[in-house]
Specification:
Length: about 210
Amino acid sequence: MIRVSCLWTGGRIPEQNAAAQWDIRTYAGNRSQRSDPSVGVGRGDILCLGDGSYDFIIARAVVQHLNSVSRFLQSMSKLLSPGGHLLILDSKDSLIRWSPCVKAVEGLMEKLSKRQRAAGIGRGAIGAVKKQLRRNRFRVTPTDELIIPANTNRMKDRFVELFQNLEKLAKAHFGVPFDSGMKTQLEAWRRTPDSYAQLGLGTLLLRRN
């Protein structure tokens, strides 16, 4: 099994490689990384791992950063054995909720999406993949949506940290200007009794023909 996770490259994937510069973890059997010294961890080009060598690949928050979804699927098809599966987990911004509303977060997501589209990449990863399936020897098995709620103090802290970091990354990689009210609004949301937020993930399980 391979798990491929985004390292936030912040831009286009090099043309000669559809899946470069990702965090790569390869697993033998179903044992955990801690108990299995054969688990390999690295960064780089997953295509070096061998054609038709794997029966399961997980791509987490990867597709939204690619400028060629078709090339990515071709690469995954080469790595998978016939009948192997590719599980794609990626952001679904339509599922984001904040109560009370945090205007700075809404503004950040709108500006980031616009800058990403201008760079030839986008956050509508699941829809982009579905359009390319017939050309790349995959068929869809059941799909679903996952909700990640911030309904405890610990999760609220993590959400605040996440969006503060996202703002920094959006500035560094896409030139999205800082919102001076972001920190204040997030802290106010965290202190509000019964405040709530959620993120959404789209999931797509594909089977190689």
